[in-house]
Amino acid sequence: MDETSLGIDLNVSPYYKTDDTPQMNDDMAGELNQMRLKNKKLREMITVVLENSNSLQNHVNKLMQEHDSFASNTNKRKFSQCDDRNSSESRKSLHQESLKSRNDGVTKVYRRTDPSDKSMIIKDGYQWRKYGQKVTRDNPCPRAYYKCSFAPSCPVKKKVQRSVDDEGLLVAIYDGEHNHENVESEHKVASYERFKSSKEVGRFDAIFVEQMANSLRKNPDFIEELAVAISSKILEHDVF
DNA sequence: CGGTTTTGACCGGCGC
DNA sequence: GCGCCGGTCAAAACCG
């Protein structure tokens, strides 16, 4: 690939002119227009991604409601027994998604992971300190015990264990409510406040896109949902 | 050096 | 009382 294939003609670059101050020529105007078009396309893509994210969130909420009603219909069984036995049923609708259910201050989160990934980490925006690990009788996979890093002021604990019949499914049981802000959401609020006070309206697009990209790039859930959304769009339109 | 993880020991609840 | 089991403690190891 050479410079002509890139649409760049070095001989007519404004920086080759004797005048020190670069002047807008036809090539630069064309590049500027192309950049504007690309920016517009990026904004449209972000809009589509956000819409997909919202629809996914709605779908997850629906699943949560279905799961809760199912759990209440089967409350003759002990709650702790529901984990792994329900997982094979919920798994069918859980592909690539997480699911939450609550019971008496105990929150359960199901998270699909790569079965080859042996780590027991579920990123939820809070910082945790592991204080124990135990192999339980009904599951050969060890159960990890975590306390919130803000303990003892924050009483929240969580247990993380792989599902007994699906090693790709992590089950996290949260006990209690955090009495402080989520570290990630704090960071997002802080960066939004900085953005709001920046007053650089002319750089609105650049700052907005950069901050969104940085924020989303660090979010593994978003990457996962983005991959699902894109693949579903590819299948839907059968293009590329 | 301070925070986190690992891991064996210990504790308490429960069923027999 | 005894054994089993889940949960927690705490010292040592590890890591940035």
Automatic annotation (TrEMBL):
Compartment annotation:
Nucleus
**Gene Ontology, cellular component aspect:** nucleus
Q: Where is the composition biased (Basic and acidic residues)?
A: 80-114
Q: Name one GO biological process term.
A: defense response to bacterium
Alphabetically ordered keywords of this record: DNA-binding, Nucleus, Transcription, Transcription regulation
What is the protein name given in its UniProt record?
Answer: WRKY domain-containing protein
- Xref: InterPro entries: WRKY_dom, WRKY_dom_sf, WRKY_plant
List the Gene3D superfamilies: WRKY domain
